[in-house]
């Protein structure tokens, strides 16, 4: 297959709001979801985390436990009730499951809300995604890469080794992504912008998968990724899509 048949250069990626629209309102809140909708996103990404690290307790819309403790977070059920409303009827959702242990409860809540058909569940743990696939084959799945807890390239003490590791990771990722898509383990790759290469775009397209890129808060980078032909771009500021 020729390169120009694989890379959808020049096509517009899907517009995805990160935590709703986290630069316009506090992320992972109803206000943030509403702000994303007001700026014409086609998908809203948000995080769901169990109250306890073993997967038990309530399900809350929070990125991590520090975030959960710093405020009174939405329950997952409150978020779904809001997003199931008529105003969001044309919007899809990327529900990011942060750690293993509660993914089947997430599936059950999506079923009750009638949102499985409009939702992609993403996560960094293939074992967690496999549990979702077995429980609800109709749900789309996205594998988030690389598995990191923070941006090590922004710290002067860790930046050089982190960037060196990313070089090797970028070289291996197209093959790993192709295999995950080919076997049906996932339907999409959710990649940090630092690991996105033309080779990755080609690999995902060859397997008829989707490639979503996170988290992109720079208009020039959005333009470059659009030219590469990625499927979707996740940003904290959906106003950047209009520039």
Provide a quick synopsis of the model.
This protein has helices at residues 3-6, 30-38, 65-70, 76-83, 103-113, 126-135, 159-182, 198-206, 219-228, and strands at residues 14-18, 43-50, 59-60, 92-97, 119-123, 140-145, 188-192, 210-214, 232-235. By secondary structure, it is α/β, with parallel strands linked by helices.
Structure characterization notes:
By secondary structure, the chain is of the alpha/beta class. It has a single domain (16-242), classed as TIM Barrel (Alpha-Beta Barrel), CATH 3.20.20.190. It is built from 9 helices and 9 strands. The longest helix is centred in the last third of the chain and has 24 residues, at 159-182. It starts with a helix and ends in an 8-residue tail after the last strand.
CATH class: Alpha Beta
- Which class best fits the helix and strand makeup? alpha/beta
Percentage of residues in strands: 15-25%
Q: What low-confidence regions span 5 or more consecutive residues with pLDDT below 50? A: 1-10, 155-160
What Rg, in angstroms, do the CA atoms define? 17 Å
Attribute tags:
TIM Barrel, alpha/beta, 243 residues, disordered N terminus, 9 strands
Write the layout of secondary structure elements.
Elements lengths: L2 H4 L7 E5 L11 H9 L4 E8 L8 E2 L4 H6 L5 H8 L8 E6 L5 H11 L5 E5 L2 H10 L4 E6 L13 H24 L5 E5 L5 H9 L3 E5 L4 H10 L3 E4 L8
């Amino acid at each position: 297959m020729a390169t120009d048949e694989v890379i959808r250069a020049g096509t517009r990626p899907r517009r995805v709001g990160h935590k709703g629209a986290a630069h316009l309102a506090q992320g992972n809140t109803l206000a943030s979801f509403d702000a994303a909708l007001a700026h014409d996103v086609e998908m809203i990404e948000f995080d769901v985390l169990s109250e306890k690290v073993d997967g038990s307790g309530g399900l809350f819309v929070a990125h991590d436990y520090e975030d959960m403790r710093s405020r009174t977070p939405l329950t997952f059920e409150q978020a779904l009730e809001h997003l199931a409303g008529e105003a969001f009827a044309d919007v899809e959702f990327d529900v990011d499951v942060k750690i293993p242990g509660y993914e089947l409860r997430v599936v059950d809540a999506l079923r009750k809300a009638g949102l499985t058909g409009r939702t992609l569940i993403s996560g960094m743990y293939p074992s967690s995604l496999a549990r979702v696939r077995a429980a609800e084959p109709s749900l789309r799945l996205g594998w988030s890469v690389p598995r990191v807890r923070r941006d090590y390239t922004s710290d002067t003490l860790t930046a050089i080794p982190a960037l060196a590791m990313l070089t090797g990771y970028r070289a291996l990722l197209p093959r790993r992504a192709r295999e995950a898509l080919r076997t049906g383990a996932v339907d999409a790759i959710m990649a940090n912008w630092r690991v996105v290469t033309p080779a990755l775009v080609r690999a995902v397209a060859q397997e008829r998968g989707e490639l979503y890129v996170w988290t992109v808060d720079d208009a020039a980078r959005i333009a470059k990724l659009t030219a590469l032909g990625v499927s979707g771009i996740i940003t904290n500021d959906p106003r950047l899509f209009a520039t």
